[in-house]
Specification:
By secondary structure, this protein is mainly alpha-helical. The chain has one domain. About 70% of the residues lie in helices and about 0% in strands. About 50% of the residues are buried.
């Protein structure tokens, strides 16, 4: 646990040292000084943070699978993000403004928080009772595909182009292949588990595009924290009603470890690293993390989780990854202060 606190302290230094700003506020940081400070001298930090996100988000699927052996899904996800909110608040305290500015911001945060964390993660945790961790990760990789469709209608400068449509069709073909195998061999519960992950991915994608369309003057970490607060509020009540008193759960050393790992490392730390990378990488470069986590999760589930690795799952996963890669393969590189070309940023959930 002390090692995790040290890791968060290091990440908080990165978060504090970056030029945080509101979405519509003018940049006051000197561009030359920023480029000299971060690009040539701290270039190692970018690949290190990127690799860390890939590894951590690949491992969260297996941690969820193991934790669900002892903990009920609704309370599991609620307690996970409750701990993550506390960590994000502690890290942000004294470094940025904690409260949204207006009523409209609260409304957007409530809607997106419920979709992102209540709907998405509840469906995901329930689905992992019936599907493998690798399959859940692959289906969650469809978040950028749904985001592309929603952005076409909600963001005028992001039309749905032929290349993106082709990538979406290829990726959805892979999803169909995987779900068809589940329906044929593992029964309807496994099939509906896959459907639940896809519905959760669509909810998360819509929430991300809505946040992008309704720019809010709130620091990224606090935006995530407020989304979690609104998202877990109904989950805490529902979990208590359905699962009972958390004190009576089957708490084991393994379940506690999985919960803390998912909350501190898999949620709080990853959000800090992600938003530190945000001004330093293009949208396509950030989204490429979602190309790495599904095969990483499949491999970890096979090596550590004693899960099957049939050829059909491999072929379906390859189609999904190929489709997502086609969608973003022509993205242009930009600096942290250059004009944005793409706005619909989809975050990998895990």
């Amino acid at each position: 646990m002390n090692d995790w606190i040290c890791a968060l302290a290091s990440a908080s230094l990165l978060y504090e040292s970056q030029p945080t700003r509101d979405a519509r506020a003018p940049v006051k940081t000197n561009r030359t000084r920023l480029e000299k400070r971060w690009r040539p001298k701290a270039g190692w930090g970018v690949p290190l943070a990127w690799v860390t996100l890939c590894v951590v988000w690949s491992s969260t699927w297996l941690a969820i699978k193991i934790g669900l052996r002892d903990l009920p899904p609704i309370s599991f996800v609620a307690i996970r993000f409750l701990v993550a909110v506390i960590v994000l608040l502690v890290v942000s305290l004294g470094r940025t403004r904690l409260l949204p500015r207006g009523r409209n911001d609260y409304v957007v945060l409530a809607i997106t928080g419920i979709l992102m964390f209540a709907v998405n993660y509840t469906l995901l945790f329930w689905a992992e009772l019936h599907v493998s961790s690798g399959l859940a990760a692959v289906l969650q990789a469809t978040i950028p595909i749904f985001g592309m469709v929603f952005a076409h209608w909600m963001l005028p400068d992001e039309p749905l182009r032929l290349q993106k449509l082709a990538g979406a069709i290829i990726a959805l073909g892979g999803v169909t292949m995987i779900c068809a195998r589940l329906l044929g061999f593992n029964g309807p519960l496994a099939f509906w588990g896959g459907v639940a992950v896809v519905v959760g991915a669509a909810s998360a994608a819509f929430a991300n595009v809505l946040v992008k369309a309704r720019s809010m003057q709130l620091a990224p970490a606090m935006l995530a924290a407020w989304q979690m607060i609104f998202g877990i509020a109904p989950l805490l009540l529902l979990g208590f009603a359905v699962d009972g008193n958390p004190a009576r759960f089957h708490w084991t050393a393994t379940s506690v470890f999985c919960l803390l790992y998912l909350a501190v490392i898999g949620s709080a730390l990853t959000f800090l690293l992600l938003y530190w990378l945000l001004p330093r990488l293009t949208v396509a470069q950030l989204q490429s993390i979602s190309l790495i986590t599904p095969p990483g999760a499949v491999m970890l589930g096979w090596l550590l989780g004693d899960e099957t690795f049939p050829l059909s799952s491999l072929l379906g996963a390859c189609l999904v990854l190929a489709g997502v890669w086609i969608i973003f393969r022509k993205a242009k590189i930009r600096g942290p202060t250059m004009e944005r070309e793409e706005k619909a940023i989809q975050l990998p959930e895990g």
